[in-house]
Amino acid sequence: MSGARIHPRRWVPVVAMLFTFALPAADAQLATELNGLNGLCTAAIRSGDTEEALRTCRRVSFDIERLAPGSQAYITSLTNIGEIKWQVANYVDADAFYGDALKAVEAISGRNTPASLPLLGKIVETKIKRGKFIDAEAVLRRAIAIQRKGAAPNDPALAALRLRQADLQALSHQYPEAERGYLDVITVFAAGGAATDAMLRTGLQHYAELLEREQKFARAETQYLRLLALVEKKPSDTSLSPAAVLDRLGYLAEQLDRQADAMSYYQRELVLLRARSGKPDDKADDIGNLEAKLSSLKLSLSQSLSLPAAGSAGRP
To answer: Inter-axis angle of helices 117-129 and 72-87, to 10 degrees?
Structure first.
């Protein structure tokens, strides 16, 4: 048996078997190396030193492109550089790096596939920051078309994209289109229960702000009242607190020449602000300004009530 030799025809499967075992090991080693490189980049980003992070991430991206061009790791490296550019408000470069990453994704997965959606979203936001609202909406329409494939009409992810589209339409003064968009997505979010509660609040806030900008004050008040009911039921963050909503309602009541209602809204706001007095988010200036506003409204209301009714002057 010691002198037995492998038949020549048996070399092929044996060699193939050797490569079968060797290639996965090599792939795993490469994947580990690539992940390690991108890990260096993300650690540099977390450090907060954007200049050093940019230097590190550029080197990482160069090395990954050399080792695995067009790979998912390379896409991640480009996206990471885009994130740094975003952090330093260099939106032109951020747009370019996100665009390069998108091209790499499309080379792997094809154009207009769900894999493109995260990067399309980033590109939309960079174009908004650059004031390119029409371009941003064109990219967003593409994302909506991808998300719509196979999705139900009340799909929350689709509604979230359409909410952003309504925001864009509002920014570019397409007010009727924006209003229709907000109404549609608010209906979807309202039916979604707790899972879409945060999106419902955002939709109501943005819709109310649009109506306020259009000076449709009575309609804006209706939406802010809906929003107030939600945030009073379950307060969220300070940027959308009951006090903030009450402040907008007070302003709208003033514009509608309902001074008594304005005072009521502001008084409720003042109670909430005073309850936060002395706490980390205390806004002493806001309290002082609101107290002055209430005093002015009270004086104005008392003067209007003391004036004689129209046509009554000179009557006995």
So the answer is: 20
